[in-house]
Amino acid sequence: MEELMADSGTAVTSAAPGRSWTLWSLVAAFGAYFCMYAYRKPFTASSYSEPVLGGVDFKTILITAQVAGYMLSKFIGIKVVAELAPSRRAWTILALIALAEVALFLFAVLPPPWSALCLFLNGLPLGMVFGFVMGFLEGRVQTELLAAGLCASFILADGVAKSLGAQLLVIGVDEQWMPFAAGLVAAPALVLFVLMLARIPSPGHVDIAARAERATMTRAERRLLYGRYAAGLTLIVGMYLLVTVVRSIRADFAPEIWKGLGTVIDVETFTYSEIVVALPVLVVCGATVLIRDNRRAFFISLLTCTGGLVLIALTLVGQYLALLSPFVFMVMIGMGVYLPYVAVQTTVFERLMAMTRERGTTGFLIYVADAFGYLGYVAVMLGKRVIADTNNVLPYFEAACWSAAAFSLVGMIFAWRYFSRRCPAYLKS
Q1: Domain ranges within the chain, ordered by starting residue
Q2: Exposed (0-12), middle (13-18) or buried (19+): which is 48, by Cβ within 10 Å?
Q3: I need a surface site. Which of 21, 114, 202, 375 has the fewest CB within 10 A?
Q4: Whole-number mean pLDDT of the chain?
Q5: What is the pTM of this model?
Q6: Which pLDDT tens digit goes with each residue over 382-402?
Q7: Are strands 56-57 and 51-52 parallel, antiparallel or unpaired?
């Protein structure tokens, strides 16, 4: 096992990996991050309806606590993900998830409201896992395809994790022990997929020629990279922040939103709805791998973000006119949210790095966006007790969708204008 880990990120780089390694990498990344969700999301399938701390539903407190830890982890990850040596990624992933499972054990044994602190400790290590998994995939000719597979994992796993949690409750597992039990179920598969990640070869000469070499970054290098494109990057991060808020409300309060739409759903619907969302989103974002020119792919990815925001607005209009069923509404909002969210994760920053040939990593830029995205969600959860009443989430969700669509569309127009001037056509590659 030590040999497997030691080889991570140090394989021969004379050429790009073949199809077998592409498939291997796709399965490994999908599986590892899919399993991580078993340590993060199953608890949201329960109501935890006991009111504490000023009458706010306990579930709202739990979600806020976990997201606060997850958000802090993203800020820590800006440094750690950018600086960690590739050879240490796999062991670090396993260590972080083990810490998250220990926190779930403490959640089971401590009484409310102290158990909420355990979910903060659960979110704290999990927030860095995505960056380490993405580190195995970026800077390759097939990065969009691989990253689309990685993003498929969190779209699908969100529903599957809720279904797993709900099923554990059905068979009689106590709601306090259910999150810890879900982690135990996922543990064997998690170890297998992380070991697979450890065997992925480093980017080869063909990859480097096409996408630029990726290297660990010092603090000064991180500041230099962001400062060079600060205005455009800030617009993209702002859009991503708003989309993250909508995505997170939709994910964490899915049962309550479905209830607000007048529908009581079974455990399979969580999974089925996310499958319907995931397929078109991943086809659109993953297809960018077919575009060799980095500048063209970058601007098409911005257009993809814009298309998702327009879809959110059209869906809200359809809902207002009572033209959509609850299932269609949830699926269309999901598609509209995940198109920009996944485009940023798979293509926007990846092709910006490839187009400009800047020194650094895609993971650094993703973590800047993620950190502020989750900061925005924590602010929403804490600000004026916006979702204090989990029996009336739908109006808040629709308001968040309208705000995200309107402000983000304006931001994307200015981002397009900025990068058109900052990265002119002669940068085609």
Answers
A1: 23-422
A2: buried
A3: 114
A4: 88
A5: 0.84
A6: 764 545 455 678 888 999 999
A7: antiparallel
